[in-house]
Write a structure and sequence with these properties.
Blueprint (H helix, E strand, L loop, with lengths): L2 E9 L3 H12 L4 E5 L13 E2 L1 H9 L3 H5 L3 E3 L3 E2 L2 E2 L12 E3 L2 H15 L2 E4 L3 E6 L4 E5 L4 E9 L6 H6 L5 E2 L4 E8 L7 E5 L2 E7 L5 E6 L10 H12 L6 E10 L2 E3 L4 E2 L2 E3 L5 E2 L7 H20 L9 H24 L4 H13 L3 H12 L22 E4 L2 E4 H4 L5 E5 L15 E7 L5 E2 L3 E2 L5 E4 L5 E4 L7 H9 L4
Parallel strand pairs: 1-2, 1-11, 2-8, 11-20, 24-25
Antiparallel strand pairs: 3-7, 4-7, 5-6, 9-10, 10-11, 12-18, 13-16, 13-17, 14-15, 15-16, 18-21, 19-20, 22-23, 22-25, 24-28, 26-27, 28-29
The chain binds flavin-adenine dinucleotide (FAD).
Length: 486
């Protein structure tokens, strides 16, 4: 049997696997994706958009415009049935982007192709064994791949998670919905509708198709038929609008589960493989992409023997709590979406709270991903939070912080006396920029913070060290995140 070697094998080329492959490739890692589908075509449009932090993440890699030019920016953040305006947020992207997942994946796949990532299409990862130095990955074509690490980005039914024996506890479904994209003969009743069975929605999809989400009368599993859709429509609307020729017909539920561990030695999980929850609030794709950005640079450093393997434990430590919170939020919002009078009364109260500035800002920061705070201990409010995309003046002229991150490398930005900071022992891994910034330092939901005299920004855009006016703690932070001094 032939064995091909890669440094990292990624099972699954959905949004998470594609983003991870790009991050690894930017860091010079030989990573390959094994993807079941023959190409990037997606049956149905699935996710409907991107939240602000994901747009920022793409901006950090210089590809935000590819998405922005194909979608529609809008205030898409919501909680329960309540929309929240975050247009006053201190971000270059204080909005979401309405863009279906099939387009998002296409753009990511084109980028990954430009970067030269190898994708084994039309093949399944069927299993693996791991030893002290690597993982043997079994592929459905009978071949085997050998890698230092395997990452399961293979969705909610992840074979990687199951083979690793990682528990996936959570809550079983209490509600299920039929989702469909269909052609129609009679103009559908666009918009939301409540009935005794729950909430329903019909929106416009690509090419004049109708995109429908209908609550099942009772929890169902398994794929629905066109007849099931037709009957559900008649139940709620009194007509099935002459639906025909389904482009996508599927079912999803509010099943909510999370992997107890994101890592088992040389095997890691990211995206839906690590967490599943109902799509209320539109979070799944977004946190999957952000899992990938958190993991990519760490895994690259371990593969390149720059950092010890233990740095990978920080991936679980940082990302598990983020998804746990999303799971909680979707459980709460599922309850708010119920069509009974009590849920409506509760929604009314939530709506009132969300007209108040502090709750509005806190929930919008959470739902948009701009409020993520990794626990790096006590310190300046920037520590563990996203670095804002400031307009800088550098020796080479004006620049933006996010432009400095295009290559997915860490950066130390010194706002104090030029040459006051020395990171020469890490200069092969991290760039140092002397810069001036004259504006306010404002953080989503927190407000203005004290201007630091220097910061270290990790490749994923989170602040790993803040100067108190001296270089105290810098060497420790550099060693922790970028390996020992050379
Ligand atoms: C109706 C609906 C609406 C949604 N709306 C939103 C939204 O608005 N916003 C949002 O952020 N999220 C939304 N989501 C969630 C979003 O679709 C998922 O969270 C996202 O697709 C997860 O990406 P992923 O790459 O982790 O997994 P997936 O997209 O599931 O990708 C997994 C990939 O792995 C491949 N694969 C699976 N098994 C194997 C194997 N053994 N070997 C090789 N390849 C394999 C699959 O073919 C697939 O390409 C929605 C989901 C649904 C169902």
């Amino acid at each position: 049997m032939s064995v091909t070697e890669h440094e990292v094998v990624i099972a699954g080329g959905g949004p998470t696997g594609l983003m991870l492959a790009a991050e690894l490739k930017l860091a010079g890692v030989n990573a390959a994706i094994v993807e079941r589908r023959l190409n990037q075509d997606l049956a149905g449009s699935r996710a409907g958009g991107l939240h602000a932090r994901t747009i920022e993440v793409f901006d950090m890699r210089g590809i935000a415009d590819r998405f922005l030019s194909q979608g529609q920016t809008a205030q898409i953040v919501g909680f329960g049935m309540n929309r929240i305006d975050m247009s006053d947020f201190p971000s270059r992207h204080p909005y979401g982007l309405a863009l279906f997942q099939n387009r998002i994946e296409r753009i990511l796949a084109d980028w990954v192709e430009e970067l030269g990532v190898l994708i084994y299409h039309g093949r399944d990862v069927t299993g693996f064994t791991q030893d002290e130095t690597g993982v043997n990955v079994e592929i459905s074509d009978g071949k085997s791949l050998r890698a230092r690490y395997l990452v399961g980005c293979d969705g909610g039914r992840s074979i990687v998670r199951k083979t690793a024996g990682i528990d996936f506890p959570g809550s079983d479904a209490t509600t299920s919905w039929i989702i469909a994209e269909v052609e129609w003969k009679e103009e559908p009743a666009w918009g939301f509708r409540d009935s005794a069975t729950g909430g329903h929605a019909i929106g416009k999809g690509d090419a004049g198709h109708a995109r429908m989400v209908l609550s099942d009368r009772e929890v169902q599993s398994g794929e629905p038929t066109l007849r099931d859709l037709s009957e559900a429509l008649i139940d709620v609307y009194g007509t099935d609008f002459g639906v025909h020729s389904p482009i996508w017909l599927s079912r999803f539920s509010d099943v909510t589960r999370q992997a107890v561990a994101y890592r088992d030695r040389r095997v890691l999980l990211a995206g839906d493989a690590a967490h599943v929850h109902p799509p209320i609030g539109g979070q799944g794709l977004n946190i999957g992409v952000q899992d990938a950005v958190n993991l990519g640079w760490k895994l690259a450093q371990v593969v390149k023997r720059v950092s010890p393997d233990s740095v990978l434990d920080s991936y679980h430590a940082e990302r598990h709590p983020v998804a746990a919170r999303v799971l909680k939020s979707t459980m709460a919002q599922t309850t708010l979406r119920r069509a009974d009078d009590r849920a409506k009364a509760l929604n009314g109260y939530i709506a009132e709270f969300l007209t108040m500035d502090e709750p509005r800002k806190r929930i919008a920061a959470e739902m948009s991903g701009l409020g993520v705070h990794y626990d790096f201990g006590e310190g300046h409010p920037l520590l563990g939070r996203r670095m804002p995309d400031l307009d800088l003046i550098t020796a080479n002229g004006p620049s933006r912080v996010f432009t400095l991150l295009h290559g997915a490398q860490g950066v130390v930005i010194n706002f104090g006396e030029p040459r006051a900071i020395d990171i020469s022992k890490w200069s092969d891994r991290v760039q140092l920029i002397d810069a001036k910034y004259a504006g306010k330092w404002e953080m989503p939901a927190i407000g203005e913070v004290t201007a630091p005299s220097a910061v270290m920004v990790r490749p994923d855009g989170y602040v790993g060290w803040v100067s108190d006016g001296s270089s105290a703690g810098l060497a420790d932070a550099m060693t922790k995140w970028f390996g020992v001094a050379r």
